[in-house]
Design goal:
Aminopeptidase, seven-stranded mixed β-sheet, N-acetyltransferase domain-containing protein, Acyl_CoA_acyltransferase
Length: 173
């Protein structure tokens, strides 16, 4: 399940954002830090920043809440890019940060499915892009099996290792 991130999530999320195995998988493209936090104060400050961005209509960060423990185990950030791309439409950018013990194809596929059910309509996007570095094998498998395809070249995004899914592809699956 996911919900808007809360300051009360700081202790739970610190476990994710201080996880040495998770940190390399975080997408910090165009961000002002690498999301490597070691103190509750750093995590709390970041959450306040995320909430300020949400209030200012920059982007939204949701906490991913584990069913069994009711703990925040990661976050999903989402925003729609301002410009439409010919042949694709309006693109949403998805950042998915997850504690390493849950970084497996099954959990990731479940999260992606949950996101895809609502985000196209909520954010009025035609396609979504997300990053998965080459060593993130479980994430890449989840993306490919969910209908994402690797973006070749940099026509859609100026960074490497991005994957795209369109609403049309989801409706065909």
């Amino acid at each position: 399940m996911y919900r808007l991130v809360q300051e009360e999530d700081a202790e739970d999320l610190l476990e994710c954002y201080s996880d040495a195995a998770s940190i390399p998988l975080f997408n910090s493209d165009n961000c002002n830090n690498d999301f490597n936090f070691q103190t509750i104060e750093e995590m709390s400050g970041c959450i306040r920043f995320w909430l300020d961005e949400y209030a200012g209509h920059g982007y939204v960060r949701f906490s991913i809440v584990e069913k069994d423990s009711d703990k925040a185990v990661g976050t999903v950030e989402f925003f729609a890019r301002n410009e439409s791309v010919e042949g694709v439409g309006l693109i949403g950018v998805l950042r998915l940060d997850l504690i390493s013990r849950l970084e497996n194809e099954g959990v990731l596929t479940e999260i992606l499915s949950m996101i895809e059910k609502e985000f196209y309509d909520c954010f009025r996007v035609d396609a979504m892009i997300t990053k998965a570095i080459p060593t993130a094998e479980q994430r890449i498998s989840a993306l490919l099996n969910s209908g994402y395809s690797k973006i070749v070249g940099n026509a859609l995004v100026s960074f490497n290792d991005y994957y795209l899914i369109s609403r049309a592809a989801v409706q065909e699956v």
